[in-house]
Design a protein that fits this description.
The protein is mainly beta. The protein is built from three helices and 25 strands. The N terminus and C terminus are likely disordered.
Length: 367
């Protein structure tokens, strides 16, 4: 018998002039409609509007308005609000509010999503977000301090015809937050810094992505959004790096072709069984200018498998097939150096975090 070579299909960031024409977008110019509803909710797909924040009272708060449960993208419209809250006293909560299809409405002209009496609305610069999930509720005002951004068209396209898509656009890479959140009758009012992105896809994540690393935050006068996505085995483990740096709110670096990603060290996380890095970095070269953004892992904040979130029959099936998906988040210092002609001309350090999310078995070090 002769050895066989597995057939793989292409995966790429849609960045050609034809891609911009296909999606009706302009290069380096973002319109409010882009943050509106992008997909037909009756078709097999999922779309969500995401907000997260690091608050001055020490809490981490995220609010997500979804058209569907992420594990059921082929189901009809079943709107969902997810609220995640980590408190400085160690309490961690992930709660879900489930609504009927007729309780969902969203504009195609701009971001104005309504689920029941709750809303996720904004104009690329200022957003007002409300949500309730079980005994958690939140009211948020987000004011952008960094110009809207998307990586090229914002679309990853998969397969020979590119009809399968995963789109991601961080329309507020960094913003000021005023928030009120409630845990039952317990009320907290605070301020902080936050982020908003918009995601849509017409295929389940596990079919497209093997794993990713993602981080965003602030260091000195710079805000940043980084990602390193590895496509699924079907797509040849294509590697897709992103790195956006904005200085004083203006984007100064965002060309993925100029980015080199690296990681160092590896140990096995006891709960997930996955290899986790000691450090990772994004190097951006543009002529004589070079930026190096480095994350170091000091503490593991979150270690969860997707089985942890399943229940009933779903949990039983996941355990039987040993479903490998999961999520980790780490904290540690972030360092940014800017070089000109080989000399360091700027150096900044700040506390930060990064995440590792995996959907398949073949994460780095286990192939």
């Amino acid at each position: 018998m002769h050895p066989t070579h597995a057939h793989t299909e292409p995966a790429r960031l849609a960045a050609d002039p034809e891609d911009y024409a296909r999606f009706g977008l302009a290069k380096d110019h973002i319109e409010p409609w882009e943050d509106g509803l992008r997909l037909d909710t009756g078709a097999p797909n999922i779309e969500w509007w995401y907000f997260d924040s690091l608050l001055d009272d020490g809490a981490k708060l995220s609010v997500i308005h979804c058209t569907k449960d992420a594990s059921r993208p082929h189901q009809p419209l079943e709107p969902l609000i997810e609220i995640d809250l980590d408190l400085p006293d160690g309490r961690r909560m992930s709660k879900y509010g489930r609504f009927k299809a007729d309780e969902f409405a969203a504009s195609k002209d701009g971001c104005d999503v309504r689920i029941g009496e709750y809303r996720f609305a904004g104009d690329l610069h200022e957003y007002h977000i409300t949500g309730k999930a079980e005994d958690l509720s939140a009211e948020v005002r987000l004011e952008s301090i960094t110009e809207p951004w998307r990586p090229e068209t914002g679309h990853l396209v998969f397969g020979a015809d590119g009809e399968t898509i995963f789109a991601w656009a961080p329309f507020v890479p960094m913003g000021k937050v005023t928030a009120t959140y409630r845990i039952g009758t317990e009320i907290h009012e605070t301020t902080g810094m936050g982020y908003h992105d918009h995601n849509w896809m017409n295929q389940g994540m596990a079919h497209l992505i093997d794993h990713w690393y993602w981080g965003r935050g602030q260091v000195g006068p710079y805000s940043f959004v980084t990602a390193y996505i590895t496509a699924a085995k079907k797509y040849g483990y294509a590697e897709l790096p992103y790195c956006m740096l904005a200085r004083d709110g203006k984007v100064v670096a965002d060309d993925g072709a100029k980015v080199t990603f690296s990681r160092s060290g590896s140990e096995t996380d006891k709960h997930t069984g996955k290899h986790i890095p000691d450090a990772m970095s994004f190097e951006y070269r543009d002529g004589d200018t070079r930026y190096v953004l480095a994350f170091s892992r000091e503490h593991t904040l979150v270690s969860q498998t997707l089985i942890d979130f399943a229940s009933g029959v779903q949990k039983l099936v996941a355990e039987i097939i040993r479903y490998p998906g999961g999520y980790l988040r780490f904290s540690g210092p972030v360092v940014l150096d800017r070089y000109e002609g080989g000399e360091i001309v700027e150096h900044y350090e700040a506390p930060g975090s990064f995440e590792q999310c995996y959907w398949q078995r073949d994460i780095h070090g286990e192939r």
